[in-house]
Amino acid sequence: MHQHFSFTRPLGLSFAVGIALAVGFWGFGVVWAQNDTNAGAANIVYPEMDALRGKKLFAERGCVVCHAVNNVGGDIGPGFDASNIDQSLNPFDFFARMWHGADEMLHLQRADLGYQIDFNGQDLADIYAFAHDREAQESFTEDDLSDRIREIIDNGPSVTFE
């Protein structure tokens, strides 16, 4: 049985972001060990990560407006260059760090893009792969950006945070 929920902002947005991140976490193939009172463990299936698809999503969805890769993109958020990212960082830690900036990211997305970026678990897996793949990042150039995304980057953020 499916239930439908209706939330008002900001609780609804926080809940939606939490669900999106949780779906992303679940999508990374972690074997979830149950406590000793439950028999066995539940295997969670994870998507294959595709760095080239992540590269495309990074540009198309607008992540590049705030985050740079290969000197392409904004400098509002931390860069996503694989050379600067802790390669041992697991997906849970990677997205937990993103969660810390969720409020600001949502405000900037709505202000500059006109919408909230929506990801599913596969999208998050692919972006995680792109953020950790130096070879895929080396081919990332301004040619990967749409004119609209390039214009938003050139104009700078429309919202500032202290």
From TrEMBL:
It comes from the Bacteria. PROSITE patterns: CYTC (PS51007). Keywords: Heme, Iron, Membrane, Metal-binding, Transmembrane, Transmembrane helix. The chain crosses the membrane at residues 12-33. Signal peptide: none annotated. Residues 49-135 form the Cytochrome c domain. This is Cytochrome c domain-containing protein.
